[in-house]
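Folding follows sequence. Below is one example:
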Amino acid sequence: MKSVWIIYLTILTYYLLGTIGIYFINRRKEAQVKKRAWIKHITYFVITNIVFFSIPFNPLFFRIIAIVVIIAGISELFKLHRESEYKYPGFFYPAILIFLVFSAGFFFFSLMDRWLILFSFLILSIFDGFSQITGQLLGKRKLFPSVSPNKTVEGLIGGTIIAVLSALVFDYIIGTTALKALFISLIISFFAFTGDALKSIYKRKYNVKDFSNLIPGHGGFLDRFDSLIATGAGIALLELLLR
């Protein structure tokens, strides 16, 4: 069995590097802004640990997490639609259909080999975290300011580069060639970005900042797990295509 603790210590190193990045990002900001950033970072750490250890030690628990995330996600989508007094049905129903398709792929992903799931989760987490950090440290050019003003070209490039290079660190987890690991990491980065973008489009349409306040420092389950849902669907699709 692969050493989960060596993998964990490696990902902890990434987390510590991210913590240093967050310190430099927030050191001159107002106290309230700093507080929100650290709450989000600590909550992210807790969630990452729960998901991380559920995958190799108890895959059934990860499947339960997947079901909870899917149910919570669709509830948040309906919640915003209801609070808008059921505006934009022509937008809402296609959005629900897209979410259900992604969710089906995500659930299929939760049934796949635990080491592929773990590899995907690690690369996704690295992409997600370092996209934000490099974007805030280096970002100048907005990707789509009308939808998500905080997303930058530099953040996307930085997160993708670090995620792809990290595939060479973790490729032994899935026992594949470096080239295939790099390819999978690109797929993960693409779908992670897609999930985040779709979430932002939905929130912008309904003119809200958060889906809910269920997770401290985050804008709800979809705000935290959108990339994981999309990544899972992307890896499930890749698996079907390669059969």
